[in-house]
Specification:
The protein is built from 16 helices and no strands. With 407 residues, it is mainly α.
Length: 407
């Protein structure tokens, strides 16, 4: 079996494990859309963007740790890198919490947001760590159990109170922290030798990657910030629902990207242009037909399926989502590029990519929303910014190969 076929096999196995996890996430999304009043859902969308931005500040170190974890054979070393990533993330979030308390008047909402950030980011590190060390059944159990518990509590609470945005952050945050504490205590007892892995040298070595992921956090959330600035909460809610459906369409992207990160971190990829181009050509040849088919089916089925699920209140969000599908397809098609840039240590190119993409997205949304409030075409502007990001990353990679005389 060829290396690429082995990669496809491992990726399909990971995706098949992801499917029930993502199904429960999709159910959670639908429940929140149906149970939270539109104004509250608009606030939930804005707060979620802020939470995602805060979490992304530690995204770079997570990628570094997972890549190191994937090439280790010793469980003690694997767990050491996972634990170090958790500690770094907690440090970043505590710093954000302290700064926020000086500027934000609603302490209860801010505390819920920070609780959510700690729980979700820690839970994500735990899950991705299980992927890296090939404990896939445990990973599936953690994800499904957490999501089902969230669904159960949301349904129970909705029978007694009107759910507010901040309630959701407390629910998800506390449940995620509970799972995190259980598995931390369980695995810590299995560690035979405490390892002294120094974080500072790792940060210095990978500072460019950490900066890149911080900018990408801003890139992914700037549209919500501008939509919230220009439009009332009810329209923010409609855009937010369309955006949730966009993220649902990307639910299989994280396991694919994680599989690519692990595959391209193996020995022999760095500096090997032939191996990289063979992998990329194989990816395009196998992935593009499936992705285009996925996009066409989703485009035609979305009015029927999503119209039934979200009800008439958010019917306009389906038009937003259909335009966003273009961006979704671009994300799947070009998803190996950033991993290959990381493999080749092209961190300056990644930072330039993140900065220019953030500027392009910001200016596009600002310009359009200054003249129009048609939410469907906001979805198109969103997809154009996604295409810009992916095409520019591809051009950066081709430029790197040409500069190094690889092609």
């Amino acid at each position: 079996m060829s290396k690429f076929k082995q990669f496809l096999t491992s990726t399909l196995a990971l995706v098949s494990i992801e499917l029930p996890i993502k199904a429960t996430l999709f159910l959670t999304t639908i429940l929140l859309i149906r149970l939270i009043p539109p104004i509250q859902y608009g606030q939930y969308t804005s707060l979620l963007a802020l939470a995602t931005l805060i979490i992304s500040l530690g995204g770079g170190i997570q990628v570094v740790m997972i890549r190191r974890c994937a090439v280790q054979q010793s469980f003690d070393l694997q767990w050491g890198y996972i634990l170090l990533s958790l500690k770094f993330q907690c440090f970043i979030l505590m710093l954000a919490a302290i700064i926020g308390f000086f500027f934000i008047k609603d302490v209860f909402s801010w505390a819920g947001l920070i609780l959510y950030c700690i729980g979700v980011s820690g839970f994500t590190i735990l899950c991705v760590g299980h992927q890296a060390i090939k404990r896939l059944r445990t990973y599936a159990f953690i994800g499904i159990a957490r999501n089902l518990l969230v669904i159960l509590i949301i349904i129970m609470l909705s029978n007694f109170v009107v759910l507010r945005a901040v309630n959701i952050f407390y629910i998800i945050g506390l449940i995620s922290i509970g799972f995190l504490v259980v598995f931390l205590s369980m695995y810590s007892s299995k560690v035979q030798k405490e390892l002294n892995i120094e974080l500072l040298p790792i940060i210095k070595e990978n500072i460019s990657l950490i900066v890149y992921y911080a900018f990408i956090g801003a890139y992914t959330q700037v549209d919500i910030a501008l939509v919230s600035y220009f439009l009332p909460s009810e329209q923010v809610a409609i855009y937010g629902v369309g955006l949730r459906y966009y993220f649902v369409s990307l639910l299989l992207l994280p396991p694919i990207v994680n599989a690519i990160r692990i595959h391209t971190s193996m020995d022999g990829f760095e500096g090997n242009a032939k191996k990289q181009l063979d992998f990329l050509n194989n990816w395009f040849r196998h992935a593009i037909p499936a992705i285009v088919l996925f996009g066409i089916v989703s485009f035609y089925l979305s009015p029927l399926v999503l119209g039934f699920l979200n009800g008439p209140e958010y019917s306009e969000s389906i038009r937003v989502f259909r335009y966003m599908l273009i961006g979704s397809m671009a994300m799947y098609i070009f998803c190996p590029i950033v991993s290959l840039l990381i493999t080749n240590n092209r961190y300056s190119a990644l930072i330039l990519l993140a900065i220019l993409s953030t500027l392009f997205k910001s200016l596009s949304f600002w310009f359009y929303l200054s003249f129009s409030t048609d939410l469907a075409f906001v979805g198109l502007v969103f997809s154009i910014s996604i295409i810009f990001y992916n095409l520019f990353s591809f051009c950066q990679y081709r430029y790197f190969l040409a500069k190094e005389s690889f092609v």
